Amino acid sequence: MAERRKVIIVGSGPAGLTAAIYAARAQLEPLVIEGEPSSNSDQPGGQLMLTTEVENYPGFVDGVMGPELMGIMRNQAIRFGAELRTAKVSRLDLSSPSPFPLWIGDPNADEPTVEADALIIATGARSLMLGCPNEERLLGYGVSTCATCDGFFFREQHIAVAGGGDSALEEALFLTRFASKVTVVHRRSELRASKIMQERAFKNPKIEFLWDSVIVDVLGDTKVSGIKVQHTSAETFELPVSGLFVAIGHEPNSGLLKGQLDLEENGYVRTIGRSSRTSVDGVFACGDVQDHIYRQAITSAGSGCMAAIDAEHWLEERGE
Amino acid sequence: MSEKIVTLSDATFDEHVKASDVPVLVDFWAEWCGPCKMISPVLEEIAEEQAGKLQIGKLNIDDNLEVTRRFDVMSIPTLILFKNGEPEVRLIGAKPKGQLLQEIAAYL
After folding, report:
1. Domain of B15?
2. Residue B34 and residue A66: Cβ atoms within 8 Å?
3. Which helix (H) or strand (E) holds A121?
4. How far is A61 from chain B (nearest CA, A)?
5. Nearest to residue B82, comparing CAs of B60, B67, B61?
6. Inter-CA distances, B86 with A10, A92, B14, B17, B100, Å
7. DSSP characters over B8-27
8. Which of A117, A150, A238, A301 is the most buried (most CB within 10 A)?
C-alpha cells in the first residue's frame, strides 16, 4: 500500500518550502518531494540555487546568497517537522477525487509511491533555451544558463548575454566581474528589466547592447567561438565571443499536469480568484508554476503560504 | 566529508589519478556554486557505496587553475571519470544520483 499523507508538496523553492513551514506548523506533517540535483532550475531549492546575491528579499539588510537563503528556509521547514525527500515525481494522477496518487521512480509501477489528501504543486519554472542549432552541443563548452556557476571561466574575455529582463541584466552585471566585455543581445529596442537594473547596466562601462537582434546560431567546434546574430533589418553578422549566457525567460514546470488540471495557454497552472485553488478540488498551486507576472522569491513565498492555508482549510472542511 | 573521498590539487592530481588502481571520478567544484552543493551529498553516497571500485576526488577550481585549464573545464559542476589516468567520460552540470551512476557504469 502506498504511504498516505495529509499534505504533499511537490517542489522546494521559496513557494514549496514556505508551504512546508506553514503546513508543518499546522500539524499536517507535510512531505516535500523536493526534486533531484540538476543545473537547469527544477532542482532542490529552485531557481535561487543558481543565483548569487539576493538583494530584495525582505529581512536581509545586506542581501543574502541565493543558495544560503534556500538552506535557511529548508532548515526552518525541517525544524517544524516537514519531511523532505530528494526525489522527483515521475507521474501523478488527478483523475479521481482525493487522495491523489503520486509515483517516484518508475512511472509505470502498479502501485503509486505515495498518496496525498491535499496536494500542493510548487514545481516552479525553468530557463528557456534559444533553440538554435548548436546551442545544446556547446552547453558547458561556453554556452551556459548559470552565470554564477560559469562566469569564473571567462576572465578577460568577451561574452554575450541573450535576453532583456531582470535575469539577463543580473547575469550581465555579475559577469562584468570576470569578463572584459559583455554584450547584451536583445530582440527588441527596449528592455523589460526593472529601472534600477537598467540604470546599473547602462552605467557599467563593460556592458554594451545589441538591440533588435536575435541569436540564430552558436559557433564553435569544441568550444564557443562566436554567435550568429540576425538584426531586424535582415542583416546577419557574426560576433566573436567565447561565451554565451542565455537568460531569455522561463517556462513553467507543468509537464506532469498536462491534461490533468486547467492550465493557461502558456502552460502556467490556472488558479481560482485570489486563492491557490486549481480546477481540481484538493489540489493547490503556488510559486512560479502559476505566476508568469511577478516571479519573485517573495511573491513565491507568499503564495506558498496561501497554498498551505488553503490546503489546511480544505482539509478542515472535509472533516479531517 | 567522507574519508573515502580524496581532495586533489594541482600538485597531487597526476600522482593520484595516474596511480589509482580503480577509476577516479573527479568533481570540479567551487564554494560559490549552488549546483555543486547539491551534488555533494550524492557524491558522498556514491563514494561509500562504490568503495573499492571507484575513487571520488574533489578539485576546488578556485585553488587549482592548472588542472582546471588542462581539462578545459568551463562549467561547474563538471565530473570527469579517469581510467588509467585518461579522461573517459565528462558529465556537465548537476545530475540525479541514478543518472550519474548510469553514465559511468560502463567504465567501472
Report:
1. 5-107
2. yes
3. strand A114-121
4. 20
5. B67
6. 41, 43, 10, 9, 19
7. E-TTTHHHHHHH-SS-EEEE
8. A150
**What is the domain count for chain B?**
1
What average pLDDT is seen over chain B? Answer: 93
Residue A50: predicted pLDDT:
84
A142 near A307, Cβ under 8 Å?
A: no
Say what the pTM is.
0.87
Q: Beta strand A114-121 with A283-285: parallel, antiparallel or unpaired? A: parallel
In this complex, is the C-beta atom of A165 within 8 Å of any C-beta atom belonging to chain B? Answer: no
Residue type, A47: Q
Contacts of A222 in chain B (CB under 8 A): 72
Q: Which residues of chain A have pLDDT under 50?
A: none
Find the residue in B nearest to A88 (Cα). B96
| A146 assigned to active site | yes
Q: Could you tell me the CATH number of the domain that includes residue B38?
A: 3.40.30.10
Active site residue A212: no
CA distances from A87 to A34, A130, A174, B97 (A): 6, 28, 31, 10
Q: What structural domains and CATH numbers belong to chain A?
A: 3-127+250-317 (3.50.50.60), 143-246 (3.50.50.60)
